[in-house]
Known about the structure:
Elements lengths: L19 H19 L9 H170 L13 E8 L3 E4 L24 E7 L9
Parallel strand pairs: 1-3
Antiparallel strand pairs: 1-2
Amino acid sequence: MAKQTVGIGTSANDGTGDSIRSGGDKINDNFTEVYNALGNGTTIAANTGTLVSNTYIIASYQSNTQITTRLNTYAQVANVGALAALGNTNLAIADRAQVANVVTLAALANTNSAIAKRAEVANVASLAALGNTNSRIALLNTNLTGTNTAVRLLINDRAQVANVAALAQLGNTNSSIATQATRINLVNTNLTGTNTAIRLLVSDRAQVANVFSVFSSGKSYSTVPNYGAAVTYDISANGSSAYIVSNMGFGKGGAAFNNPELTVRNESTIAFDLNGLGGAHPFNI
Length: 285
């Protein structure tokens, strides 16, 4: 808690200060804070011994200052000694490093010389081996050239022999083709003659069929409607109630022959002669 100050006003009895009750409350709060800090809230625990020890602490602080001064002095002396020893150590290290560098450089020089000599020897051996390799490559190229020439000549000879055999076979094939062509022409001639005979036979059969149809209908070629039909039916009327077929074997007259059922063959040509109806009865297909 922060310290609480009792307000006493600007001047005596001007009525601007704290009231007696408010001022006393602040005083009580301040004392409670002190008793809590130095005691148990009711009694202050500080004693004479504690105060004396505090005085000793203050005196000891002054002596500590003297100790600090002496420590700084000794530290400076120690630093001088350490720096001197360090200087000697650095000199020794430098001397040892120089000696080590000399030895290392000498060994390195000897190593470089050895490497150079080994490299020269290796280069001589490599160049000699390379020369031998190049000679072998040149010899191999010469052998390959001769081999290629021999292979080309052999291939050329074999190709000529193969061409002769192929041409001979081709001549036989051409002769065989010519013979086959002759046979094909003969077959075509026979087929043409056969087709002509078939056409004549069909025409004869068709004429016979037409003659039969005309004969069955009782009409001549000049009076048959739709000339060329396989069958012609003569349609007439039996009064106004029915139609009848008066030819082709259906008979004439009588109720049994009225409106007969006609059956014809598929893809055949049929003709109907309706002149006999005279409009008396319709004829529908």
